[in-house]
Amino acid sequence: MEWNRAITKNFIELYREKPCLWKISSEEYKNKNLKQVAYNELVEYLKSNGMTDINMKEVKSKIQNIRRMVRKERSKVEASKRSGNGRDDVYKPTLWYYDLLAFANDMDPLSSIDNITSKNNEEDEEDNCDNSHEEDKDESGMNQFSGNGNINQYD
């Protein structure tokens, strides 16, 4: 047997009952043993529904895939809201299980902060305190960055 709508729907509902796998603000989320038990329960559910060859790695992969697809859809919705279009023009998700995973929406930030950028910003702020700092720019006036995070004209 393979994945179908009914198995996927029941899988998501069972996943929802296991906040140790998705609720990052929960103490349970930090408990590796509890997570192991929860993943095993998901594997057993699938095995009992004809997926006899399924393993934990495949279950984790399936969870990542369905959450990634929901994030993509949510990103489209958010982008359409910011586009300045009217309420009627907001993107409507086409993914059939989009609403089933709404419980995990606040656990998946749409964007992340790149700590390399943050580090460069901190260095820039420190350098701005010292008026002797000059940034190198190419012909277009754009900064040139080297692999070590420093600003250089040539690499």
UniProtKB/TrEMBL annotation:
<feature type="compositionally biased region" description="Polar residues">
    <location>
        <begin position="141"/>
        <end position="155"/>
    </location>
</feature>
<dbReference type="InterPro" id="IPR006578">
    <property type="entry name" value="MADF-dom"/>
</dbReference>
<feature type="region of interest" description="Disordered">
    <location>
        <begin position="114"/>
        <end position="155"/>
    </location>
</feature>
<protein>
    <recommendedName>
        <fullName>MADF domain-containing protein</fullName>
    </recommendedName>
</protein>
<dbReference type="Pfam" id="PF10545">
    <property type="entry name" value="MADF_DNA_bdg"/>
</dbReference>
<feature type="domain" description="MADF">
    <location>
        <begin position="10"/>
        <end position="109"/>
    </location>
</feature>
